Each structure stands twice: as C-alpha cells, then as structure tokens.
Amino acid sequence: MKKTLRKELLTKRGFLTQEEIASKSTIILDQLKSNPIYIQSKNVMIFLSFTNEVSTDLLVKDLFQKGKRVFIPLTVPATRELIVSELLDLNKDLHIGNFGVLEPKKEAVRPLPPEALDLVIVPGVGFDTKGWRIGYGGGYYDRFLPKLPPATPTVALAFEVQLVEEIPTASYDFPIQYIITEERFIDCMKNR
Question: Where does the chain bind substrate (predicted)?
C-alpha cells in the first residue's frame, strides 16, 4: 500500500514545472520564516532538497544570514542510521552522497546529538494532516524522530499535491508536528 502511494505521490509531484516549484517554494519558505518556531530557533536541522522537492537552498542561506547553526542529515546505510552534522560551508563541506543527495564529506562531519536541535525540517514524499508521512522508503527519519525531545518542533515543507487524506501507518512510523504548504500551515497535533 505505501509503495503504491509513494509512487503515485512522486508522479504527482513530478508534474510540477520548475517555475511552479520555485514560486510555491518561495511561498512555503516565507511562511516558515515568519513563524515563531523558526524565528526563535538557533540549531536547525534541514534537508538539502533535490529533484522536485520544496527548494531549501534559499532557506539554508537565510539560516546562515540570521546567525543560526545549520545541521544536515547524513545517512549511514550500513546501520540505517541518520546522523546530524553541522554545515559550515556550502561550497566546501558537501558532496553527492547516498541516494544522490548532498551530504557532508567525511572530513566535514561534525556530529551533534539530536537533543541539541530546536527545530527539525523534515522531508517526505507525502503527508496527511495528522502528521503521518511517507518518506523515500529507508525509514531513516522514523528511527531518528523518536530521539528528539518532545518539545522539539518537527516541520514538513510540502506542496499541496503531496497531501492525502490518510497515510497508512505501521508501529514504527513517527508523526511530525507541523506541515507548511503553499496554501496553509497545518498544526498536525490538533488533528490527532
């Protein structure tokens, strides 16, 4: 069921043009940047977007400009673990890593315990308004998110086409707290 839904959602997102991705991403990022969750944060974990995800490039630059510490995920396929690593230099610290995603180079890994984060921006293929998500199938975030203190906000940046009525869940799935799309801010905790 999840595999079929993942494929359908990736196809839907794939129909977005580059212009639509850029304009919708700007709206989504503006909503996030004006939100107190973002304004008050200091240690922010963010995914580096690829293909047709909500573009996070400008958000990473904004984080640096505002003096916030930026952390990115590093996947370890051997253990199926996600490590949080500080990003200091967009030009020197990164290379194309696992799954074709930009990740820190080995010599640029600066780990941080998850409990030190005060905002986590979560990627995904699809979401429902209760905060359940479908990722890319590796389970990295489902294993990582429970390590965060409950007070740490988790926010998904998504296009409206990524929202569905209900995501099928399993015992290992872990919900996020908020979703921001080009049309709305969703407090998922109110919908559970």
Answer: 48, 53
2 is in an annotated binding site: yes
Per residue in 100-141, pLDDT tens?
899 999 999 999 999 999 999 999 999 999 999 999 989 999
Ligand-binding annotation for 4, yes or no, is: yes
172 marked ligand binding residue:
no
131 is in an annotated binding site: no
Average pLDDT over residues 6-16: 96
Q: Hey, which residues does 119 pair with through a beta bridge?
A: 44
- Residue 59 annotated as binding site: no
Better-scored residue on pLDDT, 167 or 2:
167
Annotated binding residue 51: no
User: No. of H helices and E strands in the chain?
Assistant: 5, 11
* Residue 181, marked binder: no
Residue 48 annotated as binding site: yes
What pLDDT does residue 1 have? 81
Could you give the CA distance from residue 141 to residue 33 in angstroms, rounded to a whole number?
23
